[in-house]
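User: Predict Membrane protein DedA with SNARE-associated domain's structure from this.
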Amino acid sequence: MAVVDVQHWLTALPPGVVYLIVAAVIGVESMGVPLPGEIVLVSSALLAAAGVVEPEWVATAAAAGAIIGDSVGYAVGRRGGRPLLARLGRRFPRHLGPAQLARAEQSFARHGVWAVFFGRFVALLRILAGPLAGALHVPYRRFLVANAAGGLVWAFGTTYLLFTVGRAAEHWLKDISWAGLVIAILAGLGSTWWLRRRAHRLDPAEAADEAEPVRAGSER
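Assistant:
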């Protein structure tokens, strides 16, 4: 399991280095480079539950990385425009290819800056939100508000829910550490259930399903 591997690796590092890694990985991911930002956050939050690091610093590092990284991605996207997105697509075809870019672009066209907020909870938009918003010339002030709100809710919500559940699991399941880990991970996924469900409305297939009745009604 990737979370277990990352958590084991982070355990050997000093707390200050862990915070820097959390901020750096999430920040670079938010600039438009596919990295496992969410896995690093979940692993660090579980370390906080085990008392290895402090949850407030994990959350702060994650939020700072998300907000700053998205802002840098916005600036790069605004300067580089569509050619930059095309180059990223050629470099990372699996994550940022034409189909993924079209999907993200449709999300922005349909939902505006809300795509930035809810995109923090969706892997594709978490990577593309900053560069795409810049390339599409979304006003930076509106982008920053949605970016900061999404980053704070995602970072602090995920960290503290995993921390709380992890501490409870450690208390009740001291002799079954793997079960505590599974419960904590499931709880972390559940913490963003509503936001992910809302964010999945950004999917083009669902948008097409929603648009079909409207078109049918307009033809009558």
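Residues 1 and 14 are 23 Å apart (CA to CA).
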